Amino acid sequence: MVKRVGIVGGGQLAQMMAKAGQSLGLSFSFLDPNPDACAFAYGHGIIGNYDDTDKLAELASHSDVITFEFENVPAESILFLHSLVPVYPSPDALKVTQDRFSEKTLFQSLGIPTVRFLTVTTVDDLRHAAQELGVPFIIKTRRQGYDGKGQAVVKDYEMLADVFDRFQGHDLIAEAMAPFSREISVIGVRSHTGEKRFFDISVNVHENGILKTAHAQHHDHCETLARTYVSTLMDYFNYVGVFTLELFDCPQGILANEYAPRVHNSGHWTIEGAETSQFETHLRAICHLPLGGMDSIGFPAIINCIGTLPDASQFLESPHLILHSYDKEPRPGRKLGHLFVTATTPAERDSVLHSR
Fold it and tell me: Which of 32, 104, 168, 186 is exposed most, by the fewest CB atoms within 10 A?
């Protein structure tokens, strides 16, 4: 019986998993290079780099099963851990999402549409991309990008040389701009037996490449197709755990942007706003426990606190707001917590979101 869970990473997602696992009787160990990692307060903390095999082996010795909280951990480290104890999700799912070109190529091979994209290795490739995709278009590093990092919008031909110099030394991918009306994500789960369930679609708003708000959308018109895409991907990887697919809602239909083989910021509303949170759902899946209900409660949403936390007077007197602090040091552009928005109608929810 699984009782001990190891997590690669000690940030807020690991912290939230540990909090959710308390009611399941689970204990947790974390590997993180930061001695002040916020998850360490909720279990056994191991300070070490993600490619340190001694530290990885130490994590494995404290674990019946291992998972990870973010996708930039070296794939080789997950493969090493997988040789010692079961690791979920699969190392293959992690490896593909670490390269944007491999990820979009997989989408298209499975019949999941994306924007047009091209690889870029030379400045001539970049000029060709401008001709093929039109300007503006987006240039991204193929690896190590998140929260708007590692990418730039190429607005005109005069920018090409400067943009190429900025990303010199990185493998790049050029992507056409998506004419989207909304950014959405769908979060699903797959158990060891292949059972699949889904949360309501999240409608997401970003500022400077960082998620600012997300809210659950009941019976969204994209729901059936988006869930089909997620189901296809989870089956392809023989996936176990929570899986997130980010999409653009465009006039021609929904286009896949990227996936995350983990719990996701856009699903934080599930903590209070769903029958079972995404964090407990993930733990239930990887620990061979029955999956819980995933229906939404009311009309939930979240507002991310980026760089600073709000003053207590801004939420304590509101019947609609609950603060989740991640116990992290303030820093510009850093997610320090989120406000959960509880509402009984869509209008009530939207009023709170627009007032923030």
Answer: 168
